[in-house]
Give the backbone structure.
Amino acid sequence: VTGNTNLDFIFNPRSAAIVGISANAEPNSTNTAATYLESFLSGGFSGPIYPINHKGGEIRGRKIYPNVKDVPGPLDYVICCIQAPFVPQLIKDCAAKGVKVVQFFTAGFTESETEKGRELQEEIVALARQGGIRLIGPNCMGVYCPGTGVSFAPDFPKESGKVGYICQSGGNAHFGIRYAVQRGVHFSKVVSYGNACDVDESDLLEYLTADPETEIIAVYIEGVKDGKRFVRALKEAVAVKPVIVLKGGRTDAGARAAASHTGTLAGSSRVWEGVLRQLGVATVNSVEELADLLVTFLYLPVPMCPRLGTIGISGGATVIATDVYSSAGLVLPHLPLEVQQELRRLVKSEAGLSFDNPVDISSSYYSSVNYHGFKILAECDRIDIALFHLPLSIMPRTHSLDTRAALWVLDHAVKVKKESNKPIGAVVYNIVGAEGWETALKCQELCHGVGIPVYFSIDSAAKAISRFVTYHERRETRRQ
Amino acid sequence: VTGNTNLDFIFNPRSAAIVGISANAEPNSTNTAATYLESFLSGGFSGPIYPINHKGGEIRGRKIYPNVKDVPGPLDYVICCIQAPFVPQLIKDCAAKGVKVVQFFTAGFTESETEKGRELQEEIVALARQGGIRLIGPNCMGVYCPGTGVSFAPDFPKESGKVGYICQSGGNAHFGIRYAVQRGVHFSKVVSYGNACDVDESDLLEYLTADPETEIIAVYIEGVKDGKRFVRALKEAVAVKPVIVLKGGRTDAGARAAASHTGTLAGSSRVWEGVLRQLGVATVNSVEELADLLVTFLYLPVPMCPRLGTIGISGGATVIATDVYSSAGLVLPHLPLEVQQELRRLVKSEAGLSFDNPVDISSSYYSSVNYHGFKILAECDRIDIALFHLPLSIMPRTHSLDTRAALWVLDHAVKVKKESNKPIGAVVYNIVGAEGWETALKCQELCHGVGIPVYFSIDSAAKAISRFVTYHERRETRRQ
């Protein structure tokens, strides 16, 4: 077994078994093994799925087999949810059955920071090598591959996407997927790989680098086994597709927390920062920021320059937005006088207007005038990206932007996007309450459908666009 | 008329007139004057409210008077929504009627950056001085005083609170109130004062400093008329209550936007930053951050030290949180070994646990064990504030935290809060979708009810608590 194997078989098993399932566990139970069963079923996994428990019984009308060896057909993929001390015997049984991959929800290995845990992990790795089995985990959620229905949560979508995601943390895999999906981002393959006793971050990174379904790679990582190999893998990855890294343990206190979590050494934060920067990897500091940057990479064309033009309503919001964009290193150039005059002609004299960039056309924004304003700004030569600001809660709720009104405004943005070659983004912000969020999500759906990335705050737009611009500037610099 | 007048009469008018109302405007119309009428009515204003339009007619069964002079009783307060050229005559009529305050939604004065606008503003100021009338605005939303029903939006709550808010921008007044109210913050008095041709930022700051109903002062400001006086007013304010400033135009580009907006010079960002820092004013960069900091000032006791203890679920989320807190300057000290052992005894061996700070008790967090965990952490001597982390979307939705489950967990936090003297905060995060927001808002209601501030992301908790700690450290330093 070498690290550089093609791992396709992990994502395309013919059959799967889930070990440690409770007989008659309810669909919504907290029995993790039962949740894996639900996940494969709702993910549309096409092969047979065998529940396993030495006590036998039934679950959802399926026979529970006492042992993986009792399964009738060939068995490629095993999910292990039994307690750690029983794992060595399971590996032996899997070897006897000809299983290709065992994935471990089970924990209690090196991350427990005990001698016993470390020994147990060494034992199962040795047994797997002997049996020709690859291991994922332990202490992880495993694989989500919408294309084949391998999954670890019943609510993950069946729809495939362009993002490959490698995640050392099960929680950050769960939330990362769920949050990104809400943001309109879908995945080719996700692997929560935990302690990485066999298949590790470098194997997975190399695999995603070569994977034609993956166009962007996202990584949550706390520490690596083999730093040199990982840096080489990162370098090869960035050469062919964008790589975004969320580094857990980038501070001393965070590194200490990471040691307790996955038992890995997080390494010096300064070394990491320097290496990632030098390699031209984009970095983020939270799962939410990761999703914002993925949206940006998915929808904004390259090359991107940093000259931003904005149009919106409300002077105060415009001023704050300008401060935030400007602090993030984005440039808001003056508009040529003739463009300012063109904008001025659109609007009747009114409070607090500004026809220079940032453009504020006040309540005309809520009339069909906005279409012309959007278009004039998008077509201005001095602007590399036009951002349309749609605040939801500036007016009294009685005549504020409900979903219908917000979509009406953005329909004009969609029209301009179809008529223009300029990168266009939308910031749907000033969101208040659950209703506001519903409106914002519907706006996102409309805009993403035509390639307009949507952000839910000025701050997140500024961070994501600035990181995107920096990423491409560094690429250019390295090329020269 | 001097700047230092007691401005109580602005917030306590006996009667009000709204000039420029359209006959038969629908309650939800975009006629701003009609919205003011709705706002006073739903705010419970107890005096007579007179709609004014030279065309006469009726609105909502009320007679529209052609002129303020035709109003039957005494008239204290006039809201002006007519166009700028008609304003001088209105001021003359108001003087004849004995009006005390005129507030201008009307724009088209200095902020228009035209000679005509500037002259018109000078004219109305002179007329008002002659007539003994105080002016608010122009180019503003005016006053929201829940105690007396003076208001500019029908959806603002009737409930009074401890925060006084002075806001140069109408939009940031609207959104600031609406967003803060969602965060459980209520107001004593809010004034959106626009161009500040008469009553200005210093008058209002002095008033709020002396106002017994106001315990915390929030300010959105782009520029000032008289820098020295404003600095003096700020100094006097900080001496008696916390002051939080959101400075619009803190960058060069932002300052240019501010000039278009309210016609004021934003001033050098470095000078502002230095002055605010030296005076010990807390600063924020967005309305959302303002609300988070208000929540913190309202619910966390002083003095506050920066030693943070956290308890939660999910190793990855815990690692990221630690990085974010640590980067914000907060300290996560080790827990004493006996405290770690106490925590360890609570929980059965399980994946990725950590009994040192940050504490991660994994899925035991969702059992009644959490009460004991919260209590042990809150009572630890090395911890100045205990933060309970409640991620909503780490588990599959099928057995994830719905509202009921989230409130069940936080009920234990409430119990600990009642039994302990330690400052306690909650971070309800990993929020996905509108349902997630509903849950988060209900969690906030429960926690704020017992004095536990709630934050909706790790990032916002880190920023707000760090600013709060810094604010009190600077106070201490100045005292010594």
